[in-house]
UniProtKB/TrEMBL annotation:
Residues 184-618 form the GS catalytic domain. Pfam families: Gln-synt_C (PF00120), Gln-synt_C-ter (PF18318), GSIII_N (PF12437). It comes from Sphingobacterium arenae. This is Glutamine synthetase III. Belongs to the glutamine synthetase family. The lineage of its organism: Bacteria, Pseudomonadati, Bacteroidota, Sphingobacteriia, Sphingobacteriales. SMART domains: Gln-synt_C. SUPFAM superfamilies: Glutamine synthetase/guanido kinase. Residues 86-179 form the GS beta-grasp domain.
Amino acid sequence: MSSPRFKAAELAISRPSEDMEKVESLKPTSIYGKNVFTIAKMKDYLSKSTYKELIQIIGEGTKISRELADQIAQAMKTWAISNGTTHYTHWFQPLTGTTAEKHDAFFEPDENGDAIEKFSGDSLVQQEPDASSFPSGGIRNTFEARGYTAWDPSSPAFIFETAAGKTLCIPTVFVSYTGESLDYKAPLLKAIESIDKAAIDVVQYFDKSVTKVTASLGIEQEYFLVDLSLFHARPDLQFTGRTLFGHMSAKGQQLEDHYFGAIPERVLAYMVDLENEALKLGIPLKTRHNEVAPSQFECAPMFEEINLAIDHNQLLMNLMEQVAVRHHFKVLLHEKPYSGINGSGKHNNWSLITNTGVNLLSPGKTPKNNLMFLTFFVNTIKAVYEHADLLRASIASHSNDHRLGANEAPPAIISIFLGSQLDEILEEVESARVAKKVKNDANLWHGIPKIPDLKLDNTDRNRTSPFAFTGNKFEFRAVGSSANSALPMIVLNAIVANQLIEFKTEVDKQIKKGTKKDLALLNVIRRYIKESKAIRFEGNGYSEEWALEAETRGLSNIKSTPKALDVYVKEENLVLFEKLGIYSKRESEARHEILLENFFKKLQIEARIIGEVVTSQIAPACFIYQNELIQNVKGLKDLGLSKESYSSQINLVERISKHTNLILEKAEEMRQARKRANTIEDTRELAIAYDEIVKPYFDEIRYHVNKLEKIIDDNKWPLPKLRELLFLR
């Protein structure tokens, strides 16, 4: 009789290819936004005056009156019910890292006992989930349950459809009873407002018609697929998202034949189905392809306003899970689900767009536009240089620690890649001399290198760089595949906003002293180029030489999450977030606490799973094998054969016994280390204890498990119970 795990493998291999026949590749334009209450649809359900008022409010970010909310709620309800929904929910992003929802039915009984469909402005604008049941970092006590979700009109409501029914989802922020944010969206909206204001003030030097600057974002999502039967056969995958046991397969990615290869038919069926569902929800998925590692893939949408892009990415991850089950797959979003092959990231492509349609990070064709580009380009570089540790903290997690620095992901050292052309231009701008007296624009540019008419792809791509300029945007490559992009984008927008504020202050000082505007701009830009030069690196970020060079440049190389997170509670960063109105000191400290808790709890789960698998599966399998060998030796002895006839079996028993005992010994030591760590009250010290004392046992235990497997392989002795634990590489 086959073991459960071998049965799982047989089932995975025999999956029917008929999944493709069930999926129809629909015309994107015919389904795009079908399940979204878009601005265009609102126009059909609202009066002209109400619609005009709503558009103005969304554009200006002002408050919505209850009267207007009632009218919008009625329109939203009519649209939703006409599309088959029975319930609605406030859809929010708590600090768990996932999304959350509480469903309410549209119906209410009236005074006559009859059921009526009801959805008021109050229900649209505000709901009350239990705040004590979500991570708060000490902001809320267990007995303080009240919290509020509040509608975000800038992100459209949508209908989420499952086999069980349809639900109207209303994107919201989530705050405590005392007003502190308990989610990712509220501080993100504040960061977006900060970058808007700061960028407008600076862009006024060049174009006074600009009244709004929008941060745009395109999120590339990498992921692995594994057959559901194989997933359920592995307790480590189920509970931790990664394989804690197993060694390298004979064939991994060394032939480089998976990347951009022909997409397997069964996977393509999943991708088409996912795209159809995503397009209905207004997620503009455009790209799909095989990634580098076996069974690794990527999808990517068009660029969107940053708040909507992040909402869509969170929704996309939900969809990926739901659609995968229909195709008997499990989506793995862990940054490093299998050791020895590439991990997964979530590349965040960020830029700034004016309401006049100008990309502020796109080089222009005229000197003035070139200077505007240079202003925002250099200020972004300076912001990253000044706050590199804060950016590092924004992508820190237990799972991403496995990926950063491995030979397929950016290192933990934050650096910026520009490409040789732009790097040379900054060198020229820094070294050029400018005449003190400037009569006109022509003289201004005399002796100062103009940025040439650059093509869109004016730089190469450097996959080893965590923060690279790619033509008209910066690509933050270090974000992990399971992360909510809101956190790194909160930090990036905050530090660039802060830098632009400082830049304007310095330029205005020079102008006030009589320096011509363009010369004042160049003076500050030139100094910023010089001051931030250390962060620019054009070489191989994987090399040992870079780690040594980065140290001489004064760049940090923080490899562990607990230490990376320390920067959140540094005084200067507490002040920065508070000054910009993004986080209060209490909110910053709470997030630091939550991220530390998340780190050590995930390690705690992994330690428990390793202990359980070792003691309940691997060691017993080894004991069974030892008993078989002992019985074999006993039989040979009973036959009167010489000791030489069974010496190899005795040697094998001793070697297996040695490694089995060491596995159990190390598992017990790990358990005791975990018990000691759990007595530590300070969350940071507890996280460090798990990182430095508990986690090292993982590799020690795996080492001896792999030794056991090698012994078995070398001696050609069958041990199904052990092999079935390790066959999934």
